Amino acid sequence: MARPASGDQLWRRVATPILVCGLLASAAIVALQVHSRSHVSATLAVILALAALVAGAMAVDLSGRVAISISSSIIVVVLAAALLGPAYASLCAVLAELAATLRIRTRPYSIATNVLAGVLPAIVAANVVLVLAPGRPHSTIGFYLTVGLAGLTNIALNFGLAAAYSQVINGERTLG
Question: Burial level of 26, CB count in 10 A (0-12/13-18/19+)?
Answer without folding.
Answer: buried
